[in-house]
Design brief:
Elements lengths: L5 H10 L8 H12 L6 E5 L12 E2 L9 E2 L3 E4 L13 E5 L18 E5 L11 E4 L3 E5 L2 E4 L9 E2 L10 E3 L7 H9 L4 E5 L3 E7 L3 E2 L10 E2 L2 H11 L3 E8 L3 H14 L2 E5 L10 H5 L5 E6 L3 E2 L5 E5 L2 E6 L3 H19 L9 E5 L4 E2 L5 E11 L2 E6 L8 H5 L2 E5 L5 E2 L4 E6 L9 E5 L3 H12 L4 E5 L1 H10 L11 E2 L4 E2 L22
Parallel strand pairs: 5-6, 13-16, 13-17, 14-15, 17-21, 19-24, 29-30
Antiparallel strand pairs: 1-12, 2-11, 3-10, 4-6, 4-7, 5-9, 8-9, 18-20, 20-21, 22-28, 23-27, 24-25, 24-26, 26-28, 31-32
Helix pairs in contact: 4-7
EC number: 2.10.1.1
Cofactor: Mg(2+)
Enzyme class: transferase
């Protein structure tokens, strides 16, 4: 007869920990297969209200742009045939018609043989004219005539009707994100309203007894909720209408009521925390009963991000992101952004990428695709990618990193010297003016603050004294803070110098023991 006790309870808890770990590809495929294909909500918006939305269908030009032949310069509309023989030695005189064509003025008189009409930039070309002579290339003969000393070719300084946009041409494709340039193109074509994909409303909930909102006094053992704000911002960046509902304690009945209401009024539900299947994590249990088919993946071979939970409840995506900020954001960008952008009618993200050399060996865990945040610096032979040494709970990792690299699930390391592809967080590489690699000290922040205020960008990478010394030897930094003791000479720092390095005296500091 089996007896249940503490040991058997622990065994049960262990068995409940991620019974089926899926590969990244399998988890994403299951999630998308449960959601797509589907019809996206479409609405018609005025141009002024369409900014930042995705076009739901192709937009076709209903008219030519420009709608008439027009002048590109200030000058005179002429017949090119009248000026075939014109030159410095043989100027041609033309009489002026009794009208001046300005923008918005329809010409009334034709340009006949031996005549010309004054015309402003953007003015319609009058009948009979096939070219424009710049005013700088003419000489007045009298009030009603000009002299021209150079020949012109047909079409000179003329934009023909439809030369910019032709009637029937596809202006913009479905999925195009409407920005200021797109609005200008649509307005020029006389289009006032466009069909756009309605932004998916995304409800965001943070969970955990320890969470408090920023701005409130922090109680003992509590932390501020960072995931709520950062996830909401990331949702907005990728086409969603983010609605942050707040942070809630791990009280199952209350949390279930909030989740059901959020799901009823939104197109997508995102939670952070409560997915590790621990004793206090209840979110995944609630999601399992919110609707069919329910959880499609719980546990993904990602690092960070193993606890990710993906579900579809009655046609709506429900996601429980890991609680640690770095884990939450990596899994969001890698697994959730593709789905969110499809729901918003947007094309896949096209993140900027660069190649950089990894200066140190990066250990990895076999069987899990690993994402490693890196800071980029300029080396003697190109970009260097320094891995962040902070864990998945460090929010500063994202703020200070330039991008991340990926280590395949079949690899147990990335060797030093590897040329790796780095996916950037921003469109361009931000190479700093001053690079500091080595031992960290708060005194450095005081020293470099005036430089930052003066407009210099300073990058400080904490890798310890030995790491800083190695970086300096490789030419990867401008300054390497060190405090290395040599037992043979009983001195600090000097014995470790090599040709090309100079020891600059620093400052003394007092350290305590905690």
């Amino acid at each position: 007869m089996n007896k249940s006790g503490p040991a058997s309870s622990r065994d049960g808890a262990d068995q409940d920990q991620f019974l089926t770990i899926l590969s990244r590809e399998e988890a994403l495929a299951r999630f998308e297969d449960a959601l797509f294909p589907r019809d996206l909500a479409v609405e018609e918006r005025a141009l002024s209200d369409a900014l930042g939305l995705a076009l739901a269908s192709d937009v076709v030009a209903a008219m030519d742009v420009p709608p008439f032949d027009r002048s590109n310069v200030d000058g005179f509309a002429v017949r090119s045939a009248d000026l075939e023989a014109a030159g410095e030695a043989l100027p041609v005189g033309l009489r002026l018609n009794n009208e001046t064509i300005a923008c918005g003025t329809a010409p009334e008189l034709p340009v006949v043989q031996g005549s010309a009409t004054p015309i402003a930039t953007g003015g319609p070309i009058p009948r009979g004219a096939d070219a424009v002579v710049m005013i700088e290339h003419t000489q007045p003969l009298r009030n009603d005539a000009i002299e021209i000393r150079r020949a012109v070719s047909p079409g000179q300084f003329v934009s023909y009707a439809g030369s910019d946009i032709a009637r029937g041409e596809i202006l913009l494709r479905a999925g195009t994100l409407v920005g200021s340039r797109e609005i200008g193109m649509l307005a020029a074509s006389g289009i006032a309203r466009v069909p756009v994909t309605k932004k998916p409303r995304v409800a965001i909930i943070s969970t955990g007894d320890e969470l408090m909102q920023p701005g409130l006094p922090l109680r003992p053992a509590a932390i501020y909720d960072t995931n709520g704000a950062i996830v909401a911002a990331a949702v907005s960046e990728n086409g969603g209408d983010a609605v942050f509902l707040g942070a809630f304690p791990d009280e199952e009945d209350r949390l279930e009521a909030v989740m059901r209401e959020a799901l009823a009024t939104s197109d997508m539900l995102l939670l952070s925390g409560g997915t590790s299947k621990g004793e206090g994590d209840v979110s995944h249990r609630i999601v399992a009963r919110l609707g069919k088919p329910g959880i499609v993946a719980h546990g993904v071979a990602l690092k960070p991000g193993k606890p990710l939970c993906l579900a579809v409840c009655d046609g709506k995506p429900v996601v429980i992101l890991p609680g640690f900020p770095t884990s939450a954001m990596f899994t969001f960008h890698d697994m959730i952004v593709p789905v969110l952008r499809r729901l918003a009618g947007l094309p896949p993200r096209n993140d900027a990428r660069v190649t950089a050399k990894v200066p140190v060996r990066i250990a990895s865990e076999l069987g899990r695709t690993e994402f490693v945040m890196v800071s980029l610096v300029e080396g003697d032979e190109g970009l260097i990618a320094y891995p962040s040494g902070k864990g998945s709970g460090a929010i500063t990792s994202f703020a200070q990193a330039d991008g991340f690299l990926k280590i395949d699930a079949l690899a147990d390391q990335m060797p030093a010297g590897t040329d790796a592809e780095v996916m950037l967080f921003t469109p361009h590489v931000r190479v700093p003016d001053l690079v500091i690699v080595g031992s960290h000290c708060t005194g450095l922040d005081v020293v470099t603050a005036p430089l930052a205020r003066a407009g210099l960008s300073v990058r400080s990478i904490s890798v310890g004294s030995l790491g800083g010394l190695a970086a300096a030897r490789r030419g990867e930094c401008d300054l390497a803070p060190i405090h290395l003791f040599d037992e043979k000479t009983d001195t600090y720092n000097t014995p470790f110098l090599v040709p090309g390095l100079e020891l600059v005296p620093g400052y003394r500091r007092m350290q305590g023991i905690v």
